[in-house]
Amino acid sequence: MTSSTPAPTGPPATSPGAIPAVVPAGRMAATAQPVLDLPNGWQLRPWHRSDADALAAAGRDPAIRQWNRLLVDTQEEARQRIERMHDRWRAEQSAIWALARPGGEVMGLIGWGDIDLTGGSAEILYWILPAARGGGVMVEATRRVSRWALEDLGLHRLRLCHSVANQASCRVATKAGYSLEGTMRSALLHADGWHDEHLHALVQGDI
Questions:
Q1: What is the bridge-based pairing of β-strands 106-116 and 95-100?
Q2: Model pTM score
Q3: Dihedral sign, Cα of residue 36, residue 37, residue 39, residue 40
Q4: Theoretical Cys-Cys bridge with 38: which of 7, 42, 190, 195, CB 3.0 to 4.6 Å?
Q5: pLDDT tens, 31-62?
Q6: How far apart are alpha carbons 88 and 122 in whole angstroms?
Q7: Which residues contact 100 (CB under 8 A, 6 or more apart)?
Q8: pLDDT for 67-86, tens place per residue?
Q9: Helical spans, DSSP H, in the chain
Q10: 8 A C-beta contact, residue 116 and residue 122
Q11: Cβ(70)–Cβ(77) under 8 Å?
């Protein structure tokens, strides 16, 4: 007569050498998206459905369309994108802010896409409307969301990628403290063909 082995109870033991998530799942979804203050009266705040005009205007701007591949043709499409921004925050996939003065119209967008809480990384994306260009506000916004990502959220590595032809983004990356790590060949398809991209990065301890 053979005896049966009792079934194991409780959670499975952690396998030896298992690597924990850099940021625990749920950290973003458990909190409301914050408002982040910038110098000179600017702030970063969550997008509202009433900001659809600004998003549609960005979709019509030639430079924004060229470098960001932003295709928003109507206000309804803009409102749908804004709803997806909030859905993706709750899903811990992205964190996107509107750049504006308190009570003023939106002048830009900045935030994190491709958020990987387990691996501790994300990629920044941004654009700014013509009326707000040239004053250095995007550099300050990049610094601020980078501190939020590293210090508040707890990510380890942040990426900033741009076409080698986009010199304005290269200046933003350098002034915001991102190190140039190399060139990714034929990395992103734009309207005029494949572009090489610069890869910049910021990691814990850089700031």
A1: antiparallel
A2: 0.89
A3: positive
A4: 42
A5: 999 999 999 899 999 999 999 999 999 989 99
A6: 14
A7: 42, 43, 45, 106, 107
A8: 987 778 888 999 999 999 99
A9: 52-60, 62-68, 75-90, 137-147, 167-175
A10: yes
A11: no
At 93 the three-state DSSP class reads coil
- The stretches in the chain having pLDDT less than 70 are 1-16
Amino acid at position 161, single letter: C
Residue 158, by phi and psi: left (phi above 0), alpha (psi -120 to 50) or beta?
Answer: beta
**Amino acid type, 23:** V
Q: What is the CA radius of gyration of the chain?
A: 20
Q: For residues 175 and 139, is the Cβ–Cβ distance under 8 A?
A: yes
Contact between residue 152 and residue 137 where contact means Cβ atoms under 8 Å apart: no
Report the distance separating Cα 142 and Cα 128, nearest Å: 12
Closest CA to 207 of 166, 135, 146: 146
CA distance 113 to 124: 6
Structure tokens at 88: 């993706």
List, in order, residues 6 or more apart from 82 with CB less than 8 Å away: 47, 48, 49, 51, 52, 55
The DSSP bridge partners found for residue 188 are: 195
Neighbour-count burial of 22, counting CB atoms closer than 10 A to its CB (0-12 exposed, 13-18 middle, 19+ buried): middle
Tallying the residues shown for the chain, one arrives at 207
